[in-house]
Design brief:
Layout (H helix, E strand, L loop, with lengths): L1 H8 L2 E4 L2 E4 L2 H17 L3 H17 L2 E4 L2 H9 L6 E5 L4 H15 L5 E5 H6 L4 H15 L3 E11 L2 H6 L1 H17 L4 E5 L11 H22 L7 E5 L10 H14 L8 E4 L22 H15 L4 E3 L12 H4 L4 E4 L1 H9 L5 H14 L10 H8 L8 H5 L3 H22 L5 H7 L16
Parallel strand pairs: 3-6, 4-5, 4-11, 5-6, 6-7, 7-8, 8-9, 9-10, 10-11
Antiparallel strand pairs: 1-2
Helix pairs in contact: 1-2, 2-3, 2-7, 3-7, 5-7, 5-18, 9-10, 10-11, 11-12
């Protein structure tokens, strides 16, 4: 640590909390060590200071956290023929982000999102500031410049907590929003679809708890967003894993939301349900059932969202475990965004290079600490598959410390997967449309003056 900081003092200058880059090549060479210390330094305040330092370095080197709002407004006017991948990274975040930026540079991609959900922040032990730092450190290391879209995914009101007492649950999510925006997440997906009341006979009344809570949280976002930035806000009408969404539900939500939301620009996209479930459907032997997405419904919902409300379109969750040959349907149905997570996790766990002993160590931890989550009738294989996402956080440093002959093949397989997905989603050569629509604003943030001591 002392050696890294000494070398950093030779290539950056900090004055009154502001960072100036004196030698960008040297900074890039030090980034592996700097981000490791920013994540694992035993002193919490030191970690936060180093995380902020990484983010400020990235901004000075041209990788700038940004809102995708302007691109989505353009998609609402004229669908450009691609679907934006929103990628949740649960483990090996820095290494995985480096692979993604490498592909982005290779394929001239600007339209992609890095995201993390409320639940993932907890079980992967990645607070928003750390997640932003890891992603932006990877951008610096790979030499990526331009807008970097970092998103809070499923910032969700948990139904049982909300119904018990709405105020503390709303305050918790507001606190998470504030933390995320401070960490320069300028894209927030609000998931209040958990509150939909199916006991009501009228569709608008079913959606009312959903759009009212979303409008309140969206108003809060507009109150605290930095000057010059319009945070891109997503809404959601159908809980992923439930029944398929309908155009009537979409209209009921958006009409209700627009009637009461008066704080500026509203939602830029709508998450809908068309047949997927998070992580896929696991069979008793631990394999995945074939998922069938109702692409016709997705097309209709995207069309209503775009043509009647000016939104970018519909958003598909829970898609990463689909077969590769299904992904070309998303741009064909004018889907604006697709969320991808579990498929990348599966590559990390299932790649032959991962030592069997380490995999068993993770599984043993899961069995010892999450046994109460095993459902009645669930096989051991189903339980492990559904729960192994929780093996990243508690063992995060051991994942990061895996040797290069282990991580190398995992990253190679991830790269091949990203290659296929980016081709199928048609985001290659989107750098120009992003550059022409999105003008990133650098929000000045101070780093601790003693961060290099």
């Amino acid at each position: 640590m002392a050696e890294i900081l000494a070398k950093l003092r030779d290539c950056i200058t900090i004055s009154n909390g502001r960072v100036q880059i004196d030698n960008s090549d040297s900074v890039r060479a030090l980034m592996d060590g700097l981000i490791y210390e920013a994540v694992f330094n035993p002193d919490e305040e030191k970690r936060k200071g180093l995380q902020r330092l990484v983010i400020e370095i990235a901004k000075q080197m041209g990788a700038v956290p940004a809102s995708i709002q302007a691109l989505y407004e353009e998609m609402g006017r004229n669908y450009p023929g691609f679907t934006v991948p929103a990628i949740n990274i649960r483990g090996l975040t820095y290494d995985t982000a480096k692979v993604i930026f490498r592909k982005a540079l290779e394929k001239n991609i600007g339209a992609l999102i890095f995201e993390i959900a409320r639940s993932e922040i907890g079980y992967t032990k990645q607070r928003p500031l750390e997640y932003s730092a890891a992603v932006l450190a990877a951008a610096v290391k790979e030499g990526f410049t331009g807008p970097v879209f970092i998103q809070g995914d499923h910032f969700q009101l948990v139904r049982k907590y909300y119904l018990a007492d709405p105020k503390p649950e709303m305050e918790y999510v507001k606190g998470l929003i504030r933390e995320a925006i401070d960490a320069e997440f300028y894209n927030i997906d609000l998931d209040t679809s958990t509150l939909v009341d199916l006991d009501k006979k009228d569709i608008k009344e079913e959606q009312r708890p959903n759009f009212e809570a979303a409008a309140a949280l969206a108003t809060y976002i507009r109150e605290i967003e930095p000057e010059g930035i319009t945070v891109s806000i997503g809404g959601e009408i159908g809980e992923i894993g439930g029944k398929n969404s309908t155009p009537e539900e979409l209209r009921a939500y958006l009409d209700g939301f627009n009637e009461i939301f008066k704080a500026g620009k509203g939602v830029s996209k709508m998450s809908v349900q068309t047949g997927t479930s998070h992580g896929g459907v696991v069979l008793p032997d631990g394999s995945l059932a074939q998922v069938k997405i109702d692409f016709d419904t997705l097309r209709k919902l995207s069309e209503v969202a775009r043509k009647e409300y000016g939104l970018s379109g519909a958003v598909q969750h829970g898609a990463s475990t689909l077969p590769d040959e299904a992904f070309h349907h998303f741009p064909e149905t004018t889907t604006s965004e697709v969320h991808l997570a579990t498929g990348f996790q599966n590559i990390m766990y299932d790649n032959p290079a991962l030592p069997a002993a380490f995999r068993e160590e993770v599984y043993r931890y899961i069995k010892e600490n999450f046994a109460n989550e095993k459902k009645e009738g669930q096989t051991e294989e189903q339980f492990i598959y559904k729960t192994r996402k929780k093996g990243f956080g508690p063992l995060k440093q051991k994942w990061w410390d895996l040797p290069s002959d282990v991580k190398g093949p995992i990253m190679k397989e991830l790269g091949e997967k990203f290659d296929i997905l980016f081709n199928e989603l048609r985001v290659n050569n989107t750098k120009e449309i992003v550059s022409s629509t999105v003008k990133p604003v650098i929000v000045e943030k101070k780093v601790p003056d003693n961060v290099l001591d």
